[in-house]
Hints:
This protein is α/β, with parallel strands linked by helices. It has an eight-stranded parallel barrel. The longest helix is centred in the middle third of the chain and has 19 residues, at 213-231.
Amino acid sequence: MTFTVWAPSAERVRVRVDADVHEMTRGDGGWWSAEAEGVNYAFLIDDSGEPLPDPRSRWQPHGVHQESRVYDHAEFDWTDDAWHGRQLAGGVVYELHIGTFTPGGTFDAAIDRLDHLVELGITHVEVLPVNSFDGTAGWGYDGVLWGAVHEPYGGPDGFKRFVDAAHARGLAVVLDVVYNHLGPSGAYLDRFGPYFAGQNDWGPGLNLDGPGSDEVRRYVVDNALAWFRDFHVDALRLDAVHALLDRRATHLLEQLAVEVETLSAGLNRLLTLIAESDLNDPKLVTPRERGGYGLHAQWSDDFHHAMHVRLTGEDSGYYADFAAPDALTKVLREVFFHAGTWSSFRERAHGRPVDTRTVPGHRFLGYLQDHDQIGNRATGDRLSATVSQGRLACGAAILFCSPFTPMVFMGEEWAASTPWQFFASFPDPELAEAVRTGRRREFARHGWGESDVPDPMDPATVERSRLDWAEVERPGHREMLELYRTLIRLRRERPELAGPWLPDLRVDAAPDSSWLVLHRGGLRLAVNFGPGDVTLPLGATKALLTWGEATVDGGAAHLPPETFVLAGTN
């Protein structure tokens, strides 16, 4: 067996395999290699006696600070040979966190709930990061060994069983990956080579364009390709790509898009790249033939912000600009609210317009809630904690009747009452206290008392964040679940609801957006957020779906507060 590692500046590298230490031979490009037999291994750099895990480890059964273990991808018995993927267009995405999706918090436990997603009408299951991070519980964004699957979830075989089971049910799997930084504990990459270049808001960033960056870029791209090839995932959600600092002529994202397209052709399987970006730059999802990076989709925070303000009335911080009366209608028509326009939060112009004639709406994921927008609130409160059921229903109707690809956060479909709070479990007491104190200080600046902010290191915080599946059958929750199922079914049965071309969308709205009407082909969605009854002419007489006491009579919708009607001409 050949062990290899990239350590270009090292004078001496050894590999400890089981109980034996072997000298490694330096080869081209700073790569070292040695032949040895064994299962558990770690590297020793120069004269340091500290054994370090493999930066490209496939398996870390004892945590991120311990030795790596040999893992052979060929030994897993896949059953998804007939699976060729699912396109994102026309799909519905469901975001979940393995550790809190079920009481068991494992891949195998999550498999038992996949049928619920099928019955709901989900097509793509997006899993928060599953790479190895320090501790047992966490969101996954503090990963440090990107190729090794978190052992408490079930390790690499567990994740493969989950993907295989999803494919057997017709579900595509989207994996959230983090290439913009590494976590604060177990990030040993800089011991091996020039992996790091500066810091961002979350930790050390990668050297993507400086000396030695060719291999660092390969480290990222090879990791992405491995998730597609070895774990059979269908899509990657790329976390916060605006923090990838790359001044090369070919940006890392474009390089990644090119290589994923090549792999897709070789595997004869649809592979998708979805970005999270704060840039409001359509270049990310513009095809390379037209000068873009060629990614397939990106999240749309502007849709979330506009909907959040409309549903809750909150208008502080980055929500302030979205309190504008035309914010929601502008986002529905143009995708970005900030499109080269002034952002009061940033105190500068921000974004660039989307060419809606050539860029379809399905390349933008719309959502009412996600892990960040819930978990980064002081108490991790969902919309259901503060918003009436009627307003939740109105928000869901707009989401599923919009031209965007809808995304649902786990439990949203039944208005789950459980919060989703920020949690971690770093074993290092000093690091744990630093995270705890930093969290409290952050929210103290916004008027929250220390006792109001959950302790992220307390196991009770994780327990509070687990879904309560018993709620599904309870009054109120049961009706919301049925609404979500019906909206998703109608989106599938009526192609005009999933139509992605924004120029085909017409939005009529009150000056204060207290009511609006979406025209989707021959269908009309009329929504009343306001405090009083409204009657709106629709030119549609057949009610397909109503909420509350809303009715259709003579081609007009009669809407009490916080109700909607979806009607058609046929």
